[in-house]
Write a structure and sequence with these properties.
It is built from three helices and four strands, in the order ββββααα. By secondary structure, the protein is of the alpha+beta class. It has two domains: about 15-65, no CATH class; about 70-115. Strands 1, 2, 3 and 4 form a four-stranded antiparallel β-sheet that branches. The chain is flat, with a radius of gyration of 22 Å.
Length: about 120
Amino acid sequence: MSNFFCVPFSSPRCSVLANITGTDIYKDRKDYISVYEPEGVKIFRIPSPIFFANMDFFKNKLVQALGFNPLRVLKKRNKALSRIRKLLKKGDLQWTSVSIWSIVKMIYDVLRYYFFQDF
């Protein structure tokens, strides 16, 4: 005869917090009508500890809340920097004060596209 047991599991309710207008209080943005979210900032709340068993759940909820995958953005950034280094090494790209700012602007524009794009 074999024994087994069942452990009930419920998923925690994750939320993105926003400032309730006119106060210093941050609550779930879905529960209130008049809320303010600072541009470029997300406050993500998960009411349970993060450990190996719920790691994938946490990552999926975080990506869903952000609207993009931050690892994908990081990989694209690193790929762009690698290309810039190769161009500099080959001599196809000159390192001047004007070109430095154009490169910085290009990287900023790419990151801004991925971070602030509405989905």
